[in-house]
């Protein structure tokens, strides 16, 4: 009894210490934000704003950059005090817990702006009526445009079914009825020349789990996967936390050159350079990750480009992981999505692995489902053993199967409406960006618009970065998350701005950004 009491007392003391530490960190952050913004406003109070970028310059790299315009006519760049952001691990006082292994401590401290920013967001979420001054999260890619359609469809009587098998242990790869339905769904919407096989479909509770499982079984600890930048930053943790798999970046840039015919163009030459550079540094790369349509740029790869990337991977005996989670979120007829599963012949089918999930295209990110399709039986068997940790509720599987098999509703109701609303939301955001004089990457897919702040005056840009990096300003407002480390980008200040939210949700952050640009 006494031993149990001592144990509980020790836990209480630890929790109290943690609470005090969190309070101190919070007070320090708030003070730093306040001091930083005051300093910015003081230093900029006498300066005239720099010229806005021409509104006709909607895309990146449409013309060679004029060196005369690379800086605003304010003289030398102003210097600002060091601002210790959450994404900088060097600013933390890391002290390992004696209760954790080295690996446990590593995982514990593997957090940054996304984790703490999300915690602040959920504690003070914006609501147009109930909390108009709350935090607006412009850092998460969620499709919130079709709740009316989804709530109606998911409430219909065919969704409400219970049988013993749905409440009991199951094949952790997924119920066969859903794997069969997923195979038919992907065959149809990916335009596969041959029916896809249900036994090659493995289901997880989200695509993050698919990344984690694939990284763990394809790579040994300390090995790496290559990925073009910028990219969805969550993949860093997905591949690292379980498997200790690193990411090697193939950096893309916005400049137009003889070989770079569009901004952020991915070429085999850039992949070769990144691969050889990593090998020269002793890094063993086991695979290539591609997101198509690309997150956050919105690029849609052509069939020819896909084939080049696949042949590059085969030449170097690399696995290639295709994340096609935005395949139905192309909202303009001028762009056509080509799934790797639509190809008659894959250069290396045993090293080609495709994933898709319901979070983005169907706007149900709270219903966790990700699907892996691989013809490699060894890979399938290995990841299947990890499915025990990533299972999906039987009832959810039944509902998703009902949703996926309803092609009439998908084709006649949901997809046309979703794509129309995505296009309208994209137009709304880009029209506002034109008004602000902010160049942007004009693409026709996904839930982001990539914006360019390089020609915004340094003072205003710094103010935006401070507000965005911390997730809030002195009065709790938020609108951008320019955490380029989390995106792997090396060409700041360019950032993603999400579009797939109701206009009542996006107006407020755009108004706040207008106020930010109006500061003088």
UniProtKB/TrEMBL annotation:
Report residue spans for region: Disordered: 45-80
Q: Report a single Gene Ontology molecular function.
A: transaminase activity
CDD domains per the UniProt record, alphabetical? AAT_like
Q: Which biological process terms from the Gene Ontology are attached to this UniProt entry?
A: amino acid metabolic process
Cofactor(s) for this UniProt protein: pyridoxal 5'-phosphate
Q: Write down the InterPro entries for this protein, in alphabetical order.
A: Aminotransferase_I/II_large, Ethylene_sulfur-biosynth, NHTrfase_class1_PyrdxlP-BS, PyrdxlP-dep_Trfase, PyrdxlP-dep_Trfase_major, PyrdxlP-dep_Trfase_small
Query: Where do the coiled-coil regions begin and end?
Result: none
- Transmembrane regions: none
Stretches assigned to the Aminotransferase class I/classII large domain: 136-456
Keywords recorded for this protein, A-Z:
Aminotransferase, Pyridoxal phosphate, Transferase
Keyword Transferase among record annotations? yes
On assembly, the entry states: Homodimer.
Family the UniProt entry places it in: Belongs to the class-I pyridoxal-phosphate-dependent aminotransferase family.
Protein name as it appears in the record: Aminotransferase class I/classII large domain-containing protein
